[in-house]
Design a protein that fits this description.
- With about 450 residues, this protein is an alpha+beta fold.
- The chain folds into 2 domains: about 300 residues, Neutral Protease, domain 2 (Orthogonal Bundle), CATH 1.10.390; about 100 residues, Domain of unknown function DUF4426 (Immunoglobulin-like, Sandwich).
- About 25% of the residues lie in helices and about 25% in strands.
- It contains 10 helices and 19 strands.
- The strands form 3 sheets. Strands 1-2-15-16-17-19-18 form a 7-stranded mixed β-sheet. Strands 3, 4, 5, 6, 7, 10 and 11 form a 7-stranded antiparallel β-sheet that branches.
């Protein structure tokens, strides 16, 4: 199946153009006149990509033999046994006895792992079992090679080859562009259309903000339900139920549960259950993917900082940075002022008064959008570049704006209509909890 996109990101653009006016605690915007705009998504031109079926059967891959000095390395056979790891077999002959064979794995940033190979019952054959313990998602990609040592201590390394940890238990779909490799099942092809559209729409902002594209094509894997998502994770469904997905900087991939429509949310950023459609679900999933890919950019560019900066930044670089609007930040009761951005900053678990969780995400995205509105996109890029060059986040802000975080936080609070004085949450008195009753009593 071949898909061509040649249209504008209309629904996503509309979502960015919405301005929500909420009750406020003071008279906001007297200095600015209106909310700063969030970044505009790029229009999507023509995109060609194929959708192919992958997985669904055990497949043994063969990699060519080679000779390295006195070592004759036979053909390597590799097979994915997901979710139970992968098996690699090869033969090697040399003038001296072979004493050690290891399978070496290299991920996108040259980190990796290894598996110690063991001799099999077949003469000169060695077997390495990779990922014997659960916890590894399917469709990760890596290069591998053999490291071989003989009795004289001579060590050679074979030519690296590429391997994909595929899922032989079911058929998946795969779509690929230079910006994303997407794997999914249990959803129609529109999910690929929306995801590829979203990646193109935010790509320019990624590059402007981080200075360059990723050095590899990120992978996104979508599971349609908890049961399939839990297959590769230790602890089964009970353990997996506590998270909707995860992103691995080492593997260069994000793994997510797709979710469903018809779910009631307390946060008004989500539509009512009766108004949720598959299109909304796919766009929401794309926002998650682009948020997680922003984390991959942060890792590759050595971007560090407090949680609100990292999570708020990933939100701001996504297809839906409207948390940078001020929902739930201005309409706070007088006794529930925003916590300070300084120090550790706000909690990821804190709630806003309108029922939206993850206060650090909302505050972080809002503050970063304030910097964008007041100082421009070039300031965002310079800020990130300085942090990547080992400036602290605060020192980088001074270089970019001439102000430190404390002064900028006051400016941002004025923009929100709050007092400039930073509110410090009081520490509640410690209360001893009752001792648990021993089991059986």
């Amino acid at each position: 199946m071949k898909i061509k996109l040649a249209f504008l990101s209309v629904s996503l653009l509309l979502s960015l153009m919405l301005v929500v006016v909420l009750p406020i605690a003071a008279n906001p915007l007297t200095q600015y006149g209106a909310d700063f705009a969030t970044p505009t998504l790029n229009a999507v031109g023509a995109i060609d990509f194929d959708i192919v079926s992958v997985g669904g059967s055990l497949e043994t891959l063969a990699y060519p033999a080679e000779r390295i000095g006195a070592f004759q390395i036979g053909e390597t056979q590799a097979r994915s046994d997901y979710p139970n790891g992968a098996t690699f077999l090869m033969t090697v002959e040399a003038t001296e006895p072979i004493t050690n064979v290891s399978l070496i794995v290299r991920y996108p940033h040259n980190s990796g792992t290894r598996a110690i190979a063991q001799p099999t019952s077949i003469t000169n054959q060695w077997q390495a079992l990779l990922y014997e313990q659960p916890g590894q998602p399917p469709w990760q990609e890596f290069d591998f090679f053999w490291r071989i040592t003989d009795a004289q201590g001579v060590t050679v390394e074979s030519t690296p080859h590429h391997f994909v940890y595929s899922d032989p238990t079911r058929v998946w779909f795969k779509a690929e562009t230079p910006l994303l490799k997407l794997y999914w099942f249990g959803a129609d092809a529109e999910i690929a259309t929306v995801a590829m559209q979203g990646m193109v729409a935010v790509h320019e902002r990624y590059v402007q903000g981080f200075g360059k594209p990723l050095s590899y094509t990120p992978v996104a894997v979508l599971f349609p339900d908890l049961a399939s998502f839990a297959e590769f994770a230790g602890g089964g469904t009970s353990g997996a139920s506590r998270r909707a997905g995860f992103t691995s900087n080492q593997l260069g991939m994000t793994v997510q549960r797709l979710g469903t429509v018809g779910v009631t949310f307390s946060c008004p950023a989500y539509p009512p259950a009766t108004e949720q459609t598959l299109q909304w679900l796919y766009e929401s999933t794309t926002t998650t993917i682009t948020h997680e890919v922003a984390h991959l950019y942060q890792f590759e560019n050595n971007i560090n900082g407090p949680t609100w900066f990292i999570e708020g930044g990933a939100t701001w670089f996504s297809t839906n940075p409207t948390r940078g609007r001020q929902e739930g930040l201005r309409d706070r009761p007088a006794d529930a002022d925003l916590p300070t951005l300084q120090g550790y900053g706000p909690s990821t678990g804190g709630f806003t008064p309108n029922g939206c969780n993850a206060l650090a995400y909302w505050m972080g995205a809002s503050f970063i959008n304030y910097i964008y509105g007041a100082y421009g996109m070039e300031a965002i890029g310079t800020w990130q570049d300085l942090i990547g060059s080992n400036f602290t986040m605060d020192d980088a802000l001074i270089q970019v704006t001439g102000k430190d975080l404390a002064a900028l936080e006051g400016d941002w609070r004025t923009y929100l209509g709050l007092t400039t004085e930073v509110y410090v949450m009081p520490t509640p008195a410690y209360q001893f909890l009752p001792s648990p009753t021993p089991f059986g009593q």
